[in-house]
Amino acid sequence: MNLTKINIYKIIGLLDHFLSNLNSRVYSQLSVTVFILCFSLFSYVEAWSQQGASALRPRVPALKVGDALPDDLKNIPLTVINHPEGKQTIKLVDYKNKLIIIDFWATWCLGCIPPLQKLDTIQKELADDLVIIPVTNDNRQKADEFIKGRRWKLPTVVNNSILQEYFPHKYIPHYVWVNHEGRIEAITGAEAVNRANIKAVIEGRNLDVPNKNDLLSFDFKKPLFIDGNGGDGNSIKYRSLFSEPIPGLFQTTSNVISDTINNTSRIYAINCRAMMLYSLAYQKLQSFPSGRIVYEIKDSAKRALFLSSKDGQSSKNHLFTYELITPLNSSEKVMERVADDLEHFFGLRTRFEKRLVDCYVLKGLPTLKNTFSKGGERKHNLFFDQIVEKFIQNQTVDVLYGYLNELLPLSVVDETDYRGTLDLKFPQPDRHNLKPLQEALRIQGISLERGKREVEFFVISDH
Length: 463
What we know:
Blueprint: H1 3-19, H2 24-51, H3 53-56, H4 71-74, E1 78-81, E2 89-90, E3 99-105, H5 113-125, E4 130-136, H6 140-149, E5 156-157, H7 162-166, E6 174-178, E7 184-188, H8 195-202, E8 239-243, E9 252-253, E10 257-259, E11 264-272, H9 274-281, E12 293-296, H10 300-304, E13 320-327, H11 331-346, E14 348-364, E15 379-380, E16 389-396, H12 397-407, E17 411-415, E18 421-427, H13 435-443, E19 446-462
Parallel strand pairs: 3-4, 12-19, 14-17
Antiparallel strand pairs: 1-2, 1-5, 3-6, 6-7, 8-13, 9-11, 10-11, 11-13, 14-19, 15-16, 16-18
């Protein structure tokens, strides 16, 4: 029995003496607590004793290229299998004045096996100057059967964690090169393990190979570059990014930004609704009448993304931030990529198509020339709702066309064929009685009448 357990028995005896002086009710209550405490102490001590010296060992510092092997490491017995002399343990100090290559591998690692097969052969050729020490976390029996099945002669370290602590890594195969002076020459992947490099180190020449430096904190289950997972993202060249709205920023969009120095094209939309994202992909939507945008979406959650704020159902959950960075390309190609991203992200299809519908048709009359603009400041008051007398000054027919498309119950088609500017006055349109508007426009040379035309619509639909 070890000294720790003896001390626990002494503690129990003192507690029993103390409890015996209490009344029976208190004794019965406290005795249960003492029993649980003692059981816990025994369990802890038993686990502690089973772990042995490794449980008491302080955390060791990871070694790097240029460091000398500490004496503690050189003298630790390492459990091995497949030793040609039948030894159960080896020590690194046994191989002083030789090149030591510690090879971390596993039976399940397909990339580990060919290099280890090659090293088994090289070891036989350079036995006086080289020692290969494979290390695996596989259980003893599995590793032994695997090694013997390939007739390897290399003794392999098993059931040992100290080497993992001194040489932490995330990926295997992982090779630690210790030169004849006991100093770490290199830490590499499999590409550096060949006869030429091994002979160079044996002959005292510098080993000019890239060092393997695993990013130990990386988590494959987490997104790249979020919370430093893989770095801060400064190395990103191209990306397509969707995110929630960014607090503290206003809604804004960009045109395609061409960077000829970094050879990239970039476009973004910050804190925008879905429809505004589509206007990045299809720029004519920026002046497209809202009445000619059709939502054939059965999914209520997706349909809600396109509700305007006046519907009272807008929320920050319906706002998005989007950025696309691609190799330098034309604006048209970049916007095609935006359209692809939106289709994948929202799971919706879009198209422009013409439909034969009832509509209002604007036509120019012979008297339209009397309304040609006399020049001056370009202005209008069309969107001041409190002003019932509307005017446009030195503006194109497109301004009138766009305004009527937003207010009238049917789409408006412009067939005036006039691209100059006009000066017009007319009453605020009444959706239920268009005669005052029609009469005012007729006097000024513009006809507004119902008809049937093929009109272009923008359709957003389920897949």
